[in-house]
Design a protein that fits this description.
single chain, alpha/beta, Rossmann fold, five-stranded parallel beta sheet, four-stranded parallel beta sheet, 12 helices, 41% helix, binds phosphoric acid mono(formamide)ester, binds norvaline
Length: 308
Amino acid sequence: MPATPTACRHLLSLFDLSPEEARTLLARGTELKAMRCRGEDYRPLRHCTLAMIFEKSSTRTRVSFEAGMAQFGGHAIFLSPRDTQLGRGEPIEDAARVISRMVDVVMIRTFDQETVECFAAHSRVPVINGLTNRLHPCQLLADMQTYFEHRGDIRGRRVAWIGDGNNMCQSYMEAARLLDFSLRIGCPAGFEPDAQLLSAGAGRFTVVHDPLEAARDADLIATDVWASMHQEGELENRLDLFSPFQVTDAVMAAAAPDALFMHCLPAHRGEEVAASVIDGPQSVVWDEAENRLHVQKALLEFLLVPGP
Ligand code: CP
Ligand code: NVA
């Protein structure tokens, strides 16, 4: 009997996981990484198909999901609005009803969070948020797996977000509440994250407009582009406002001596991060990018493979 809409789990936001589930998933990501390293043949998703809907560009998200499905013995289909009816006005509800009768899981990268929510509400199969203007939960799973691998549990640690109060920042805010760490956000005035998200985590978040103050004693410094994909026309106007928020060696020096540096990528050296930082000894950005593969495989397994 096929599942009916709402009968299955989704990952539209990190809050779709309990703190225990999130920690289990991160550990499983590390385990799957070790299994791949040992060359173990593990194909729990034989005959399963992932539909990937991309309304924005991607390198990491596409390659990690597609490679992950192949490694699990399954298959992935890339769909873009340019060559599907989604780009010609077919309602998202109808697309969800149809696509979810044909595949086992769907990943969507789009603009509005409401689009992934609407798709999930009409889907018979799990739906994964591959980035919206509001959130980027899969990237946070990879960032957290990377932190745990390098430094152990992040509970009680201090994290600094430097730059735009964007989708990545807002997923860091969700991760802070889920995994119990504090988050200091250093952003230009007027570029704070969503006010409701801030008040929902009051006490856990501090917003400052000084990057050195944000970075002080932090265990992890994270940043992202100054203009996201839906804001590219705004970059020119943002450059002057954001230039004091570049993650430089001085910003890293204000953090704890063993602080890590993360960036979801793609990065712009000389804008949000100095080359000496992203290419320096505290940067773990390549592990972070690689962990997209492993933690999303853990996520696919969690959503699709019945537990013991
Ligand atoms: N970090 C990230 O999501 O990268 P892509 O845009 O390349 O998928
Ligand atoms: N904030 C960026 C993240 C890209 C992975 C964007 O939305 O474009």
